[in-house]
Amino acid sequence: MAKKGKNYKASLEKFDKAKLHEVDEAMKLVTETSKAKFDETIEAHIRLGVDGRHADQQVRGAIVLPNGTGKDVRVLVFAKGPKAEEAEAAGADYVGAEELAQKIQNENWFDFDVVVATPDMMGVVGRLGRVLGPKGLMPNPKSGTVTMDLTKALAEIKAGKVEYRLDKQNIVHTVIGKASFGPEKLEENFRVLIDAIIKAKPSAAKGQYLKSVVITSTMGPGIKVNPAVLGQ
After folding, report:
1. Which listed residue, of 27, 144, 169, 220, carries a Cα 20 to 30 Å from 44's Cα?
2. In angstroms, rounded to a whole number, what is the distance separating the alpha carbons of residues 86 and 149?
3. Does 17 or 223 have the greater pLDDT score?
């Protein structure tokens, strides 16, 4: 097990690790316990009462956080012709087709955070499923990353669009901002995320939907939010 640093240990002394906190209290604590010399990313980790092995219990979608993510997102777009020109004009960091697919496959190149593709390019992108999929980079119509409206897609991504989806343990891991945002902006982003996840609740899900909610900074301890106060 990795040894915890003195800042981490000092942060643990600021609160009861077992307590379930109100949202505003959790956001205040996560900023107070962010002690690194860089602007730490704040994440939400939400365990859901679903079984993602079943297609009718999948939870996946995308939202635009009202205060953004605080991160300069690098976007790769697979497109050709006029659509490639549209992507470049809309601020894409990389635009191309087969040559970019080969660069990813042959050079293990991943200098990007989001992949967007026009529908006609999915034949090319599909061959990258084994390398893009595990990294959560595979374009998907449900998240708005397979689209003909590249201008809109890029505007939303650059403004702070984040995707949420279940991992194998039925947990959603999502960025909600930076420590420098402060408690109020983090809470605004967090509540928009929670509302979207609640609206995405599968009809097949039974029992308690929000099992546990933890907020954490890059280097800080996890702070538990009381799921009962979030509405289900």
Report:
1. 144
2. 9
3. 223
Phi, psi of 76 (to 5 degrees): -105, 130
CB under 8 Å to 103, separation ≥6 — which residues?
109
Superfamily grouping for domain 6-68+161-229:
Ribosomal protein L1/L10, rRNA-binding domain (3.30.190.20)
Q: How far apart are CA 31 and CA 27, in angstroms?
A: 6
Span 35-55, average pLDDT: 92
The torsion angle over the Cα atoms of residues 166, 131, 176 and 10, rounded to 10 degrees, is 100
| Measured distance CA(128)–CA(140) in Å, rounded | 13
Q: Which two tokens stand for residue 203?
A: 């009809």
- Answer whether residue 229 shows pLDDT above 90: no
Tokens matching residue 4: 């915890």
Angle at 200 between CA 228 and CA 178, to 5 degrees: 70
Residue 207 exposed, middle or buried by CB count within 10 Å (0-12, 13-18, 19+):
exposed
3-class SS of residue 224: strand
> pLDDT category, 206, cuts 50, 70, 90?
confident
Domain limits of the chain?
6-68+161-229, 75-158
Residue with tokens 């980079």: 137
Task: List the structure tokens of 174.
Answer: 């999502």
Query: Identity (one letter) of the amino acid at 208?
Result: Q
- The dihedral through the CA atoms of 132, 177, 189, 57 has a sign that is positive
Q: Round to whole Å and give the CA distance between 27 and 228.
A: 17
CATH architecture of 75-158: 3-Layer(aba) Sandwich (3.40)
